[in-house]
Amino acid sequence: MEHTTQNSIEQQELLVRVERNNRMVQRLSEKLSSYTHEPKCPQRFEKFYELNKSIQNYKDHQKRIMSKIRQQQLHLIEGKSKEVEYHLQLFKKLETDFASYLLDLNKPL
What superkingdom does the record give (predicted)? Predict the structure, then answer.
């Protein structure tokens, strides 16, 4: 019984963390679509489109993960799943790429 309760708590914590990351990605996407972050040269347009593609891939993966978490189809071992770990890594990479993009925008052409 205690193991079931612990697993349920871990799933809820995981769900909260994944949802929080999703809200952050939504905010990053909104910033990216703002005219203040619009690219001004071909190289930056490439980075811009890559970043948009990464955001879309993240959102698609997010939907699959959330569905599995809610349906309890993820096999959590001590609160972790390879699929969720991969998703969290995607978030970290996306966050890093976005920061890099913003820094590049501030550099002179």
Answer: Bacteria
Query: How many Å apart are CA 38 and CA 109, to the nearest integer?
Result: 13
Confidence of residue 73 (pLDDT cuts 50, 70, 90): low
Q: Does the reported pTM lie above 0.85?
A: no
**Distance of CA 55 to CAs 18, 72, 77, Å?**
14, 25, 28
Ordered structural domains, the chain, with CATH: 2-106 (1.20.1270)
Residue with tokens 């959590």: 76
Instruction: For residue 66, give Cα distances in angstroms to 14, 44, 108.
Output: 10, 32, 41
SS3 readout for 49-105: HHHHHHHHHHHHHHHHHHHHHHCCCCCCECCECHHHHHHHHHHHHHHHHHHHHHHHH
